[in-house]
Design a protein that fits this description.
With 532 residues, the chain is mostly helical. The protein folds into two domains: 447 residues, no CATH class; 83 residues, no CATH class. Helices cover 84% and strands 0% of the residues. The chain has 22 helices and no strands. Helix 3 runs antiparallel to helix 4, helix 3 runs parallel beside helix 13 and helix 8 runs antiparallel to helix 9. The longest helix has 38 residues.
Length: 532
């Protein structure tokens, strides 16, 4: 088997493992929010918890699963290729030691400055709501330290071609936060008032500890033993820091824009912060299954190809990963847009979460879905810039993205009066614009990026997507016309039936159109089944 074929086989297998693991995490995250919504409703309490969690969550993307993870995996992989495993382990010791010290200081600063942070990021909250948000923020701030260490460990395991447990780690976060949060919340306040939210905040820390802890046995199996190392004047540490600086902005532009949306949404009354969070969570389900999986698996591979100067393989792998992201996210986009209300109704309309909240969250989901393809492709494309050493390019483009988001937020939300729906549309538009600009720049750098093949796939996928859209629309008119008043089980059965038929119709049409990427995926599945 040739080297490119081996890469493709390993990459497809690893992407499948990561995709399933990340999908499990996303589903558990959805269950987590379903439970919280049923217990607390979709109003001011969940607005406060969502805003409080978003503050350390933004820092997680800035310093952990965004910048630190990307910079560390790139440098660690190159160090292992050029200097050997021992040098890579020494680099890991230095980075982990530095992470513990810096993030501990950041956590203490966050706890102390929580009132100022909340007043800056949720200026529209009234005094009582703001005070609750401050308390929850202080409890959850140590989460950033736990999840940053988990991200470094995940990067080390990914670089050693271990993908399953690192991808499953966030599932343990969700399990810990659900079980711990609900039990402690009930113990603090059986009526599920504001004091019970303190239990959810403590549960978040329990989940973060589990996310780190479940990966440590795997790290021991690949031969790593941690030794504190304070010798930070090192070329590898410098390389990680140089990559982190630009990628703090570039890799987290989406979360920065979501945080900006929180600022705007806080002035729109009780509920919009949580409605937007629900919609964004649902949009992230297919993004986690496809975009994050492809991005996670492609980063070490692209870094190795760049390190050895294999430009042809680098170009081919990058183009193939982006085409796969489009093939898998276009049907998801259409399904979320057309079935938004029944999806949210089935998932969230229980307990204190009613039909009004369902309609409002569905409106946001439709507009968020506009940017799904752009989000997924960016997960791969941004990593490619880091792998070739062009770390400043995504940073500069993300500055443009943040500025564009601010402008579109004002235009859609206040000038046109679209409320929280305008905030979701702005985020989707910015993701698409960000991808188009970065794609053009990478095309210019590589001088060829298989654009013709990508356009052919895009056109064929849209044709198959039109059939999917027709099935979704017809099924909703026939089976879900009265979704707001239907009982849960008939509504669930109808929704599942429509999704299965629509998905089957899409992939049948895609096979008839002979889309190569789908044929490759099916061939990989057949090989897997044959081996079993």
């Amino acid at each position: 088997m040739t080297e490119p074929a081996q890469h493709e086989k390993l990459n497809t297998k690893a992407a499948g493992i990561v995709g399933l693991a990340v999908m499990c995490s996303r589903v558990l995250g959805l269950v987590r929010e379903q439970i919280f919504a049923a217990l607390f409703g979709g109003g001011r309490f969940m607005d406060a918890f969502t805003a409080a969690f978003r503050i350390p969550n933004l820092l997680r993307d800035l310093f952990a699963e965004g910048a630190l993870s990307t910079a560390f995996v790139t440098t660690f992989s190159k160090t292992a290729v050029t200097d050997g495993d021992a040098a890579a382990w020494r680099l890991a010791n230095k980075i982990i030691t530095l992470t513990i010290i810096l993030l501990s200081v950041l956590t203490l600063l966050g706890i102390f400055t929580a009132p100022w942070i909340v007043s800056l990021l949720a200026p529209g909250f009234d005094a009582e709501k703001a005070e609750l948000t401050i308390t929850l923020t202080r409890i959850m701030f140590p989460f950033i330290l736990l999840v940053s260490l988990a991200a470094v460990v995940m990067g080390m395991l990914n670089a050693r071609n271990v993908f399953g447990m690192p991808a499953m780690a966030s599932s343990f976060f969700n399990l810990g936060s659900i079980v711990g949060g609900v039990l402690i919340g009930y113990w603090l306040d059986p009526q599920w008032g504001p004091h019970a939210l303190l239990g959810l905040a403590i549960g978040t820390l329990i989940g973060g500890a589990l996310q780190l802890g479940v990966q440590l046995p795997g790290l021991a199996r690949v031969g790593y033993v941690f030794h504190p190392d304070f010798r930070w004047r090192d070329a590898g540490v410098k390389a990680v820091m140089l990559l982190m600086g630009p990628s703090v902005v570039a890799a987290s532009a989406t979360q920065v824009n979501v945080m900006v949306n929180t600022v705007f949404a806080s002035s729109l009354g009780d509920g919009p912060v949580f409605w937007l969070n629900i919609a964004f969570r649902l949009m992230q389900l297919p993004l986690g299954l496809f975009g994050v999986a492809l991005g996670t698996v492609s980063l070490p591979l692209l870094a190795r190809m760049a390190a050895i100067g294999n430009d042809d393989a680098f170009r081919s792998e990058l183009a193939r990963s982006m085409r796969l992201s489009f093939l898998l996210t276009i049907p998801a986009t259409l399904g979320l847009i057309l079935l938004a209300e029944p999806i949210i109704s089935v998932l969230y309309q229980h307990g204190k979460f009613g039909a009004t909240e369902t309609a409002q969250a569905a409106a946001a989901l439709r507009f968020y879905a506009v940017g799904l393809c752009g989000y997924a492709a960016l997960k791969v494309l941004v990593n490619a810039f880091y792998a070739v050493g062009k770390r400043k390019t995504p940073m500069m483009i993300s500055f443009i993205a943040v500025g564009t988001n601010l402008l579109l937020n004002w235009l859609f939300t206040f000038h046109l009066g679209w409320g929280h729906r305008g905030l979701a549309l702005s985020t989707g538009c910015v993701a698409t614009i960000n991808f188009v600009i970065l794609y053009a720049l990478m095309h210019r750098h590589l001088k060829h990026l298989e654009t013709t093949a990508m356009l052919k796939l895009f056109a064929k996928t849209l044709l198959a997507g039109a059939v999917l859209a027709g099935v979704c629309w017809g099924g909703q008119q026939w089976l879900l016309a009265d979704w707001a008043t239907m009982n849960f089980l008939p509504k669930l059965a109808a929704l599942i039936g429509i999704i299965i038929v629509a998905g089957s119709a899409f992939f049948a049409c895609a096979l008839l159109l002979k889309i190569p990427e789908l044929e490759a995926l099916l061939a990989a599945v057949r090989r897997r089944l044959a081996r079993k």
